[in-house]
Amino acid sequence: MGITFKKRIQTTKILNPADSFKETILTVETRWDPLIKRTVRVLDLPIIKFPPWAMEDMLEKGGSGVCPFCPQALEKVTPQFTVDFIPGGRLRLGEVCIFPNRIPFDRHCAVVVFTKQHYVPLIDFSEEILFNAFSAACVFLRRVVEKDPAVRFFSINWNYLPMSGGSIIHPHLQILAGEFPTDYQGAVIQGCRRYQKRWGQVYWDDLIETERNFGERYIAALGQTVWLASYAPLGVTDIMSVFRGRTSLLDLPDQDLRDFVQGLVRVFGYFQEFNHNSFNLGLYSGDLKGDDSFWVNARMVTRRLLPPVGASDVSYFEKIHRESLDYRTPERLCEEVRGFF
Ligand SMILES: [Zn+2]
Fold first, then answer.
1. Which domains, from first to last, does the chain contain?
2. pLDDT in tens, 141-166
3. 0.85 surpassed by pTM
């Protein structure tokens, strides 16, 4: 067993204006990711809830009249796949529609529109809406690898609302598939290989067992999916879901996806209650030509603009130091989320 949860705490003293300039001790933790050893910073600020975001202003700015993903515009303005790849140009499964992204972020980059509805509040995402989109994305990925043998790495991603970098309010996923992984995905795949070689075990199996024994970041298990608060968060509210024993998105049983979206609905219930209005999500697959050391997993972090001027929540830390931050500990996050499972 090679899981270690390394952290170091530093403290500093200030004279605190909020407490008659009395001496106050402040602390910051540096944590090392147990797999890829990347460092992150964890604060423990006394923030319980942020104020809710003024959704009406945002919706007005992104009015439905100009939305390219609404039914009246989609056929006219979104690109189509070539007919040898997807006959008819777009893949439709129920209300879900998949078409190429006009910006080529990867060898294959597709957009998955969830539904005809322009704005879906977090609380209105049903298991059915979510399942239909994620399972259609997996159908698309199977088509990609059937048609293009050069593809090895893929993921399904989601920017929900503009605060997370999503430029279109209408809910949609982005699928990446190509010859190369993203930097993080590649680091995790390599880390899993190294771990298995050194310890003779699958990292994820050891992680789940260790977290279940500790208990302080273990949220729940739903079928084959296990939900954790990430020990070394990639951002604020980093929640991880691991698919036991599944190495690829290509052959996920429907039941696993149903368990996954059931978990998402519960997480969204928590987000709603704590005013986490926006998030990024990544659902990663292993190397198609690789071994069985990688298990499919998802990570999500919440995003917001910071008052009073609407500052970005991404700063020099993330951009030019490759360091992420959370304002509260994963252990506190776990306590907050657990009640929703
Ligand atoms: Zn729309």
1. 7-42 (no CATH), 55-338 (3.30.428.10)
2. 999 999 999 999 999 999 999 999 99
3. yes
